[in-house]
Amino acid sequence: MKHLPVALSGLLSAAALLASSFAGAPVLAAVVCLMCLVVSLGWPQLMGVAARRSLAAVILGAGVVAALGAAVVSAVESLFFWSSVALAFGVMAIFVIQVVRGTGRPHRIESTIGASSGVVVTTTAAGWVAGLRYPAELVGVGGDRTGLVLIRSPLPYEDWGVLGVTGASGELTVVGLAALALCVAVLLACLPLRDLLAVPLIILGTPAAALGVGLAWGELTTLFSVVLGLAAGLLVSAMRRLLLHRGAPAGRMAALAVGTAPVAVMGALVFFAERLLLV
């Protein structure tokens, strides 16, 4: 029960991303901003740092700028530009806050490192928005499929040309597949099993589930299905192991932030997987 807030926040975040991936980039960006809010409220509490309000504002502001930037840019090369800018200025703002606090303040190093890691989490969450817009809006149709093993579903689907990963007409997107894989991974992580059984189950079960979804729904590929499923499984299994060894976070908001953070970070993996694998 003590890990229930962590599991619920992770599951709800992934489910919200899955649902919003069908509604388009604006709705998905709003969900990402809400995730950044949860992380920003709980991260300073989790790290036990001072100046929590100012640092939380920086963590939230960096994430919102990155998400909105990914939602409005018109060039593929600029999709992660605002994430880089927000990360740089966010870390700079954290150092400025520490300087303003004055000398002799306790836990300045821990506060700086902890808040900077929070900025990394929220700015990488923009990868969910960038990942949705990359194939759906900015690449166009008729993409080259060289080197990708295409799975054509036995069920009816819309053929949109670029691996069918656009969500405009009910298609399961790469973003939706990754969010669904995270949901499966979190559910597997909640099983009351020892690490010896739970970790292999999560790492192997999540790619298997993602591959099964790719076979049954949409024009997805074995490559995307396995890569995203494996990434989700590794991420969640590592977080599960850490929580069991370190114990549940102290504080409700800290627990919610811990559950949301891996889901947010997965956004960067989704986007860069598309850039590397979608040719």
From TrEMBL:
Residue ranges crossing the lipid bilayer per the database entry: 26-43, 55-73, 79-100, 112-131, 172-191, 198-217, 223-243, 255-273
First and last residue of the signal peptide: 1-25
Keywords attached to this entry: Membrane, Signal, Transmembrane, Transmembrane helix
Protein name: Uncharacterized protein
Organism the protein comes from: Nesterenkonia halobia
